[in-house]
Amino acid sequence: PPPRRPEAALPTIYAITPTYSRPVQKAELTRLANTFRQVSRLHWILVEDAAARSELVSRFVAGAGLPCTHLHVPTPRRYKRPGLPRATEQRNAGLAWLRQRHQHLPPPQPGVLFFADDDNTYSLELFQEMRTTRKVSVWPVGLVGGRRYERPVVENGKVVGWYTGWRADRPFAIDMAGFAVSLQVILSHPKAVFKRRGSQPGMQESDFLKQITTVEELEPKANNCTKVLVWHTRTEKVNLANEPKYHLDTVNIEV
Ligand code: UGA
Ligand code: MN
Predict the structure, then answer these.
(1) Ligand with smallest separation from the Cα of 17
(2) Does any ligand 1 atom lie closer than 6 A to the CB of residue 93?
(3) pTM > 0.85: yes or no
C-alpha cells in the first residue's frame, strides 16, 4: 500500500469568497490566492456576484494553483443598495454547494468552513487555528467596528462577552471574518442560511450563528482571543479619472 501521507488526516478548510466585478477585483483575488496557496488542504469556493461566470475569474481560477470551485449567482437589483447586507446570495450558494457535495459522501468528512471576503488580509497562522474547530470557533478581527480590533472576551476558556465599539447589543458581536464552522455543523443544520428578510446592517453574522450555536458553546482560538490573525482591510476605490472613454491602446489588457 502507498505510504500514508500525514496530511490525509487534516480536515479540509473550505473558504467561501463572494466576489464582484470592479477595477480591483483581480488584484484582490491575486492577494488571496497567494495566501491560500500556502495552506494545505484548502478548497476555495469563489462565488461571483454575477449572472454568469466571468472570463476574468474563470481564467484566474484556472491558474490559481489551488483547488477551486467557481460558482455564480447575481444579487437581485433591489438588494444592491447602500445600507443593505452584501453577498447574502453568494454565501448561500457556497453553503448549498458544500451541502450538496457532502450529501452523498460517507462520514466522517472532516472539514471546516469559513467566510473569506475578498478584501480582507489573512495570516497563515489563522488557518492552523481554525483547522481544529470542533463546532464553531471564534477569534479577534483587526481594523473593524471603528476600533483597532474587536474580540470575543474569554474567561476560563469560554466566551463571556464581546469587546466592540459598535452595536454591542449584537448577540454575536463579530465580523464575518471572525469565526469558522465545522462541516458537520453545516451538514446537521441544513436550513441554516443567510436571510434577506428582516436583516439589519451588521446582523448577518448573528442571524447566521444563532441558527447553529450558542455563545456558551463557542471555541475561542488565537490564544484565548488575544491575537489578531485577520484584518478587515478595505481597499480604496480606484481613481480612474484619467481613463479614456474609448479604447485607445494598441493592445487589450486584462487588469
Ligand atoms: C462588512 C463585513 O465584513 C462583510 O462580511 C459583510 O458582508 C458586509 O460588511 C456587509 O455589509 O454585508 P465590507 O468590507 O463593508 O464588510 O463589505 P465588502 O468587503 O464590500 O463586501 C463583502 C464581500 O461581498 C466581499 O467579498 C465582496 O467582494 C462581496 N460583494 C460586495 C459582492 O459579492 N457583491 C457586492 O455587490 C458587494
Ligand atoms: Mn470587506
Answers:
(1) 1
(2) no
(3) yes
